[in-house]
Amino acid sequence: MSTSRRHFFFGSLLAGAVPQAGFGSVPSLRALGYKPFYDKLNVAAVGCGGQGGVILNQVAPTENIVALCDVDENRAAANFSKFTKQPKYKDFRVMLDKEGKNIDALTIGIPDHMHATVALNAMQRGKHVYVEKPLTRTPWEARLLADAAVKYNVATQMGNQGYSHESIRVAAEILWSGEIGDVKEVHVSASPGTHPTGLAKGPDEKGVPAGVDWDLWLGGASMRSYAAEYTPYNWRGFFDFGTGQIGNWGIHTMGPVNLALQLGAPTSVELVSIEKKSDITFPDRAVIRFEFPQRGGLPPVSVYWHDSAYPGEPEAYKVPGIENEMILPPSNNLGDKGRGGSRAGGGAPPNRPRPTGGVRTGPGGPGVPVYGRGSFGLERQSGVLAGNGAVFVGSKGIMATVERGEGVHLLPAERWKNYTLPPQLLLRSPGHMADWVRACKGGEPSCSHFGISGPYTEWMVLGVIEFRVGGKLNWDSKNLRFTNSVEANKYVKPMFRKGWELKL
Fold first, then answer.
1. Tally of structural domains, the chain
2. Cα 107–99–495 angle (5° rounding)?
3. 248 alpha carbon, distance to own chain's centre
4. Alpha-carbon distance 413 to 364, whole Å?
């Protein structure tokens, strides 16, 4: 049992790239572009502001930063100033042409619509890649990158940091132990984002700011006039560029669900409700249901995505049998839950507090702990799922996970109070960025390599299409198409501007 689960977690698509003989220190691995652990990677960053800057600064303490690229000098200014000696570029292709011989790997933190374009170009040149979540904007691109990782034999990682946390593994182990029985229904949510939603018309065009290369920013997207509403962050709310909250936070909060339930591909996706539908942006809020078939010994399951769920809204999910408890706990409620403080925080991502054991105030009051991190202080309501998290409704009980999987607990709180965790089955991570760096040097494939994050993203972004089309869409994963909607199939693969087409 543990072998198959560990196999699922780490995947198989890249495992064959690492010979048993060594971890980046033998000639065969050096020839593939891997380095010994004691050598530093030469890393280039594409996207140096916002989250791109965050991941750049996560890899910088242990590896060499050799080149920086950003189409927006203003957005990247702080890190351009910080890394003064490294050459700066606006076009990633020019950077790879000029600096390629000195680059081992890339971090990619840019708008969603360009993830696949930059990543594929780098992989085709033999570069390892770390790509921020969501991996891609469309199912076709997700499949493309998963296939490319195999073809070009490089180390990969999607930036869904919760996959490296201790608590996401604990949640899976609790479910697999049978503690909450068969799970046939799951509810997952995220709070509203700050990007535009529900727009009736597009933004007014304006002059392109100095320091921004608009043509390169658009990349493969269709040409249009610049609008301030697109940059530097609001692109996330537009169908042509982003994936809304389902790609922004859903890819995080759904992580424990994808791992614990080993979801694979759904058979259908259906729009249950929607508020303020738009042809150009994501709606104000909505509920989508994904249907998954039986997977081995796991029964069929309905997974509900509550987009922009907010406390007090009528569509907020009410957890059955739970009325006077907070479903997602307040921040920093940590507990060792029987494994000892030294193990509790072993998988905490970089720059996150590591649990040190002990019991603090949990959702059920003093003495009721939560394993891992709690929420980031968002408003909560008793008995209602609103904010960032997930609720697993089992035949024998209920389990909730917090944020990106950084906390887990059983409901009602009294049941969790004296609960002893099941035996550990999954390997623990050294941290999300460290996990990828290790893989780049020939170590274990990272926990969210494209063999895992590709299929995961592929089914998640079906929800993006559902926002646009509506109805119940039946999905044929093998052939990457909907069987009952010509309209929906238009959005499975992007339309690329001439010269930006992608080919494996």
1. 2
2. 55
3. 8
4. 5
Is 74 exposed, middle or buried (CB count within 10 Å of its CB: 0-12, 13-18, 19+)?
A: middle
274 close to 470: Cβ distance less than 8 angstroms: yes
Does 64 share its domain with 141? Answer: yes
Q: Structural domain of residue 392, as residue ranges?
A: 166-197+244-417
Q: Which residue has the tokens 């196999």?
A: 7
Find out whether 327 and 390 touch, Cβ atoms under 8 Å. no
Cα separation, 103 vs 86, in Å, equals 12
What does each of the 504 residues of the chain score in pLDDT, given as a tens digit?
333 333 344 443 223 333 333 333 344 555 566 788 889 999 999 999 999 999 999 999 999 999 999 999 999 999 999 999 999 999 999 999 999 999 999 999 999 999 999 999 999 999 999 999 999 999 999 999 999 999 999 999 999 999 999 999 999 999 999 999 999 999 999 989 999 999 999 999 899 999 999 999 999 999 999 999 899 899 999 999 999 999 999 999 999 999 999 999 999 999 999 999 999 999 999 999 999 999 999 999 999 999 988 766 666 788 888 887 888 865 333 344 433 222 222 233 222 222 222 222 233 333 334 445 444 334 456 788 888 999 999 999 999 999 998 899 999 989 998 899 999 999 999 999 999 999 999 999 999 999 999 999 999 999 999 999 999 999 999 999 999 999 999 999 999 999 999 999
State the Cα–Cα distance between residues 295 and 404, nearest whole angstrom. 24
The answer on 256 and 342 residing in a single domain is: yes
3-state secondary structure of 335: strand
- Residue 359: give its domain's CATH number: 3.30.360
Determine the Cα–Cα distance for residues 108 and 296; give it in Å rounded to an integer: 35
Structure tokens at 173: 């182990």
Q: Give the largest Cα separation in the chain, rounded.
A: 62
pTM: 0.88
Strands (E), 182-300: 183-189, 268-275, 285-292
In the chain, % helix, strand, coil (3-state, to 5) comes to: 30, 20, 50
**Token representation of residue 305:** 């995505």
Q: How far apart are CA 469 and CA 15, in angstroms?
A: 38
Tell me the angle at which helices 166-176 and 2-10 cross, rounded to the nearest 10 degrees: 140
